[in-house]
Amino acid sequence: MSDLSSLPIATTADLDQLRKKIRGWQRDGQRVGFVPTMGALHEGHLSLIKLAQERGSRVVASIFVNPAQFAPHEDFDAYPRTLRDDAAKLANADCDMLYAPLASDLYPDGFATELKLGGAAQGLETDFRPHFFAGVAIVVAKLFNRVQPDLAVFGEKDYQQLLVIKQMVRDLDLPISIIPGPTLRERDGLALSSRNAYLSTKEREIAAGLHEILTGFARDLANGTDWETAQGKALAKAASAFDRVDYIEARCAATLAPLPAGPVDRPARVLAAVWLGKTRLIDNLAVG
Ligand code: AMP
Fold first, then answer.
1. For 83-138, what is each residue's pLDDT tens digit?
2. From the CB of 191, is ligand 1 less than 6 Å away?
3. Which domains does the chain have, with CATH numbers?
């Protein structure tokens, strides 16, 4: 861990320091917005900071590469860690504070609590990363307890994650407003992601195809094509463009429940996860 006091934004790994600062703001009647991240920040993350600022709040960002949401064979060790650059970007964006806790502090010896998630956590990502949402939910619940923000912003880029967090907040009566942030994209449609750094030049060219395929899928559904036919078409395109397709599906936008057979008769979302070499890309779009 680099020397946090030398970073260009007020940064702490210490819970007491974090709480003191935040309670001070809240005592002064200021709202506190929270943007949890795993770092390697890009414009998508910074757009969430801006959204929290537009809600009139002080903003705390966190950077924590959460071991609990990676399976042993996944990219925890390779995940980009760029704390100094991230701190500069946050300072530039007028973020008020960076919280960068240590794993040994969040998960001390003897930590043994797990969360079991149903509803929006069922299917899609869970079919391929069964450990994932339990890991996300436990760290977000802990961070919410530590920061105690008035609002928290999550990206629609991770649409299933957004719904899982909303569901957890509702089910556990957490007094935090969850604000969705739209997905920021490159000019060719590729959703910004810290994992895009893994892509080779060739893979980067192919990667933009995911947005194009999802756009066509969403358009077919909006035009009244039954979802089974539209999904078949999207799947065939994705299978020829990518090395592997985990899923490409249309679901109910509010709950992620499967849709009844035939044309789509309610707000829907198309969602996909595909592989290019060792890189897994996820993306989604609203229908209509
Ligand atoms: P991560 O650091 O990738 O876990 O993401 C932290 C937050 O940034 C999550 O709420 C993500 O959904 C959000 N996010 C990631 N990529 C984007 C993007 N391209 N546009 C907007 N938000 C994003």
1. 999 999 999 999 999 999 999 999 999 999 999 999 999 999 999 999 999 999 99
2. yes
3. 4-181 (3.40.50.620), 194-283 (3.30.1300.10)
**How much distance in Å is there from the Cα of 241 to the middle of ligand 1?**
24
Q: What is the longest distance spanned by two Cα atoms in the chain? A: 58
For ligand 1, atom 19: residue with the closest CA: 192
Distance of CA 263 from the midpoint of ligand 1 (Å): 31
Inter-residue contact 137 to 165 (CB < 8 Å): yes
Atom number in ligand 1 closest to CA 36 = 6
Query: Which residues, 6+ apart, have CB-to-CB distance to 113 below 8 Å?
Result: 138
Whole-model pTM above 0.90?
yes
**Angle in degrees, 0-180, between the axes of helices 132-147 and 15-27, rounded to the nearest 10:** 60
Q: Is 45 a catalytic residue?
A: yes
What would the pLDDT profile of 27-49 be if each residue is shown by its tens digit? Answer: 999 999 999 999 999 999 999 99
The finding on whether 62 has its CB within 6 A of some atom of ligand 1 is no
Q: Quick one: tokens of 2?
A: 């680099």
Measured in Å, residue 80 CA sits from the centre of ligand 1 at: 14
Cβ–ligand 1 distance for 66 under 6 Å, the answer no
The phi and psi torsions of 250 (rounded to 5 degrees) equal: -110, 135
Cβ atoms within 10 Å of 286's Cβ, excluding its own: 14
